[in-house]
Every structure is written in C-alpha cells, then in structure tokens.
Amino acid sequence: MKVLLTGSAGFIGSAIGAALEAEGYDVVRVDLMLATAHGDARPPAGTHHLDVRDAAHDRAWSGVLDGVGLVCHQAAVVGAGTSVADLPLYAGHNDLGTAALLAAMTEHGIRRLVLASSMVVYGEGRYRCAAHGDRTPPIRSVEALQSGDFAVYCDLCGESLSWGLVDETARLDPRSSYAASKVAQEHYAAAWARQADATAIALRYHNVYGPGMPADTPYSGVAAIFRSSLERGEPPQVFEDGGQVRDFVHVDDVARANLAALQATAEAEGGRLATYNVASGVPVTIGRVAELVAAGAGRAVQPAVTGRFRLGDVRHVVASPARAEHDLGFRARIGPEVGLPAFATAPLRPAAGHQVV
Predict the structure, then answer these.
(1) How many whole angstroms from its chain centre is CA 286?
(2) Is the C or the N end of the chain the one with fewer CB within 10 Å?
C-alpha cells in the first residue's frame, strides 16, 4: 500500500516514516523544510520538497499523489506561537494547507486520512468541584497569576477544583493560534469526510518527546527546553509552581499510534471523523518532568521554580487513553519515568539555523 506522509522530515514524521517502512508500506515523503523547524537543512534523500498549500493546483503534486491509497498528514507549524503576528503563519500552513491537501486527495480518489491533531484543542482539561461536580473554570486572571495563585476555581462556590482525565467528547476551547489552527484542521477533515464519503482519523497528540526532537527553539517542547538548560549548566526554568499536570508520550509510541490508525481506516465508518487521544496514560507534573530530565543527564541541579507564566497556558490537561485502546488497540509502551531520563542523552536535531547535510 502506498502512503503519502506529509511533514516526513520532521521530528514526528521521521519516526512515523521509519515505522511505516518497517511494516512494508511504500512511503511517499513530502516536506517543505520550514526554517523554523529545519533551519538550513536540505530535504533528506527521497523527499519531495513541496508545499501542501499548493497541493490543489501544483502539477508536481499530481505525480506525487498518483497511486496513493492513504494519507498521513503531519505537516504543520507547531508550538504555541511567539506573538499575535504568528496568526497568519498558522492559518496559512495548517488550515489552508490541510484544505488544499483534502481537495487534491478527492480529485485523486484518495479517501483515507490520518491527521495529526493535538491536545491543545481542549484548552483547559477536565475539572471537578467537590460540591458541584464537573465544572468549566473561567480563564485565570492576570492578577491571580501575577500574585502567584495558579489554581483554578469553581465558578459557583469559588473552591479549588481537582483535575480529571479528558476524553474525546470534551469541549474544544483553543487558547493559542496553534490550537485554533488544529481545531480548524479537524473541522476541515470532518467536512471532507462527510462530503467525500471518506474516512478520517485525527490523533490528538499530547506532549511528544524523544530522539530527534528539535533543540531549544521558541517552538520546542518543554522537555527539550529543560534539556538545553542543563547542557548550558543552568537549572531548568519551571513556570508557575511546577504543579501543572500533563501527559508526556514518547515519539515511538506516537508512530505506533499512527500505524494503528492507518490500519483502522480500512474498517472505520465512512463519512465521519473519529478522534483519539494519543497519550502515555501516566500523568506527570511539569516540575517532575524537569527532575526526570535532570536525573537522566546526571546533573546535580535542582529545577528553578520561577513563578513566571505565559498568558494562554492552561493549568492541567491530562488525557484518557481509553478510546484509542478500545478502538485502535493502541496502548503506549514507554512511560515518563523511563522515557524522560533516557531523553536527557538521546540525539537531538540541531536548533533551527544550523546547517545539516
């Protein structure tokens, strides 16, 4: 089976490509090699240097799509964004790029899609009040954050809320330009599935880490940023009080989830989008992440809990992996207590701006 893999030279795309080839798929690789992710690197051998935004009208795409039966769409601008000026960047590459690719797929009779989505579509996670049950907390105020109060509170009684596991039926509440673009990608995929009587699966990745992750950039994951601090001889800088709870999932597990999703598209109901959390199933605080990376690096450095914060950051978001296990047969194999210390010495790709040949 021939599979088109967009974003194939990226951190996650590279791992997926290797897993697909190991399973005998004929992988057609496409990557634009955006400087924010790849610096001055050249496309790897066998990679089509194409822009998904051109998929619906560039003749080069016709040859690439011929004979393809499945599409695994990983290409995207990632990260929370560094300013409001990033909005057109995300809307162009992520939203327009996905829409153009879907149009081209339909023209070529391709009706099976796996889309890389993200846990950021949820915004804040699930919360429960001891007195009032499940509640949707208001956005944390700047004044509270500045005072060092990072908790979330019940909108009815004002008591602190406890976190719970978020499943795929949760509301979508994007808090950043990246998050808004991921919600839009899912909506385009859902509309395409209905209109084309096609099958689409969106995988909502939680915090992905592992070998080949980009080094410290404004778009890197927090585990890579912690590691970069340690390599400079500095303690990892932990925002808020370090008590934010997340799920960190290893890139090898993410690749396995994509394999399971691609296989599932052959049997999934047409005309709809199915969504799945891709997570380790092991909640961990950001403070603990810093400790695990430091321990793996063998550095006797305590993380620095700074009390700093970023507007738009959520307090807790932790996934329920139950639907992915039930429907796709996917369960993560690498937990954070093993994977994060190993990540401290795993090979990374150079920071953007460095030449790679």
Answers:
(1) 17
(2) C
Beta strands 304-305; 272-278: pairing state:
unpaired
Is pLDDT at 355 greater than 70 in this prediction?
Answer: no
Tens digit of each residue's pLDDT (9 = 90 or more) over 303-338? 999 999 988 789 999 999 999 999 999 999 999 999
CA distance 109 to 105: 6
Contact present, 23 and 3 (Cβ < 8 Å) = no
pLDDT, tens digit (0-9, with 9 covering 90-100), for 82-117: 578 889 999 999 999 999 999 999 999 999 999 999
Q: Return all residues near 74 (Cβ < 8 A) that are at least 6 apart.
A: 5, 6, 7, 8, 10, 12, 13, 16, 116
Q: How does pLDDT run across 335-350, given as a tens digit for each residue?
A: 999 999 999 999 988 7
In the Cβ-directed half-sphere of 189, how many Cα atoms lie within 13 Å?
26
CA distance 93 to 184: 12
Residue for token pair 């992440």: 289
| Cα 90 to Cα 129: distance, rounded to the nearest angstrom | 35
CA gap 131, 205 in Å, rounded = 32
pTM of the model: 0.95
